[in-house]
Design a protein that fits this description.
Blueprint (H helix, E strand, L loop, with lengths): L13 H5 L8 E4 L12 E2 L5 H5 L4 E3 L7 E3 L4 E15 L3 H6 L8 H6 L1 E5 L1 E12 L4 H7 L6 H4 L4 H5 L7 H7 L4 H10 L3 E3 L2 E3 L3 H17 L7 E2 H10 L4 H11 E4 L8 E4 L1 H13 L3 E3 H11 L15 E6 L2 E6 L9 H11 L2 E3 H4 L13 H8 E4 L8 E4 L1
Parallel strand pairs: 1-6, 2-7
Antiparallel strand pairs: 3-4, 4-5, 5-7, 8-9, 10-12, 11-12, 13-15, 14-15, 16-18, 17-18
């Protein structure tokens, strides 16, 4: 290449390229260590991610059989390879060129031609980061392996229990689940998981049912208000019944919310209608379908007095079907569905080929896909039909 602007030999490397002015040119040559260098890859970044990268606040997560993701403290990014049809030359800094073995004694011919930049690799493309939803379905699977039960509470040798399969610490979950730390915490809360002896566990449904029933039973005996349960009163009573304090406190957080009560002191909880109502509906419907009227009768007997026994609180937890003149109800929880949109819609349309919007909406509103709105999800995965202008829209599989 003809030199239009002479550059002194020895100033080569990446610095020479960075300092090239417009309407000038420099010569390049193959580095004597030129090769594929598969351990060197380019990563294209959004500027907002630079601080996390430069300060080493990111991690790569994934098992050997999974595509790796990059996680910051709060977000998860898929790593995509993007090829380029143009030749991209990778030129190391001059000091690195010497470290890699560039000869300081170039030939006179090289000096005359001012070969100032040595190409060590031709890059076929770069890695690109695309924000994605956390992959939390695996978290559900891991926590379901060994739920914490009342039988385990009574075991004398806890260390023996920890040798069982299906116990995962925080570091285990970080290694196995493709989600950022914040997203993993959110997923654990959504699954009502609790840390016990250093392991994150889900609670056995029968165990939770015993705790909740005992709490309601003692509320009647001791005249406790379900809207103002004093933790200092509740915990000792249920502990005397054989339930660990930390598990009872956890259940108060799952089925209630903290309230400010300056007159009573301590920590006060209020049981909430939806989680309590959903729990008893699951207990009644476990593994079966029921006549709707019979279900409502049994369910309202279990829902504590003073709480709303409206069918609306079961939104996203049950489905109904008509068989002749009879309406049946069965458990179908959004929490049991895949979090990947394509898999979620596939499951929904396997269950029912056609959905009215008011029925479908509770089962898709939790789907979050970066860069895609709820309307976009529906356009991508469903077909919408409307028999008449005033009729409810119907959604079927695309």
């Amino acid at each position: 290449m003809e030199i239009e602007k002479s550059l002194p030999y020895g100033e080569g490397g990446a610095e020479a390229i960075l300092n090239v002015q417009s309407n000038t040119s420099i010569s390049i040559a193959y580095h004597q260590l030129f090769g594929p260098h598969d351990d060197l890859m380019l990563l294209e970044l959004d500027e907002k991610l630079l601080p996390d990268i430069l300060n080493q606040r990111v991690t790569l997560r994934g098992q050997p059989d999974e595509d790796a993701v990059l996680c910051t403290q709060s977000k998860t990014y898929a790593i995509k390879f993007v090829g380029t049809s143009n030749s991209v030359f990778l030129i190391p800094p001059s000091n690195l060129s010497i470290a890699l073995g560039a000869s300081p004694n170039s030939s006179e011919k090289d000096h005359d031609n001012a070969v100032v930049a040595s190409v060590i690799k031709v890059v076929p493309g770069s890695m690109e980061l695309v924000e994605v939803a956390p992959r939390l379905d695996k978290l559900k699977l891991l926590l379901s392996e060994n739920p914490y039960s009342f039988d385990e509470v009574s075991q004398m040798n806890i260390e023996l229990t920890h040798k069982n399969k299906g116990l995962y610490s925080w570091s285990d979950l970080v290694e196995k689940v493709q989600a950022s730390d914040e997203e993993l915490c959110t997923g654990l809360r959504a699954l009502a998981a609790v840390e016990i002896d250093g392991y994150w566990r889900s609670l056995d449904e029968n165990f939770v049912d015993e705790i909740l029933n005992m709490l309601l039973h003692n509320a009647v005996l001791n005249d406790w208000l379900l809207s103002a349960l004093n933790e200092d009163e509740v915990l000792p009573v249920l502990e005397a019944d054989g339930f660990p304090r930390e598990i009872v406190r956890h259940c108060l957080g799952v089925y209630g919310s903290k309230v400010v009560d300056e007159t009573r002191g301590g920590c006060t909880w209020r049981l909430e209608e939806r989680p309590v109502g959903v729990h008893f509906a699951r207990v009644i419907l476990r593994g079966k379908k029921m006549n709707l009227e019979r279900f409502m009768e049994e369910w309202r007997k279990k829902v504590p007095e003073g709480m709303n026994g409206s069918f609306d609180v079961l939104e996203g937890e049950v489905l109904t079907e008509k068989i002749g003149i009879e309406t049946r109800i069965y458990a179908f929880s959004v929490s049991s569905l895949p979090s990947v949109p394509a898999e979620r819609f596939s499951k929904l349309f396997q269950e029912k080929p056609k959905w009215e919007w008011k029925e479908l909406q509770p089962f898709v509103r939790d789907l979050k896909v970066p860069g895609l709105s709820s309307e976009g999800l529906l356009l991508k995965y469903t077909r919408r039909s409307q028999p008449s202008a005033d009729a409810e829209p119907i959604f079927s599989a695309r």
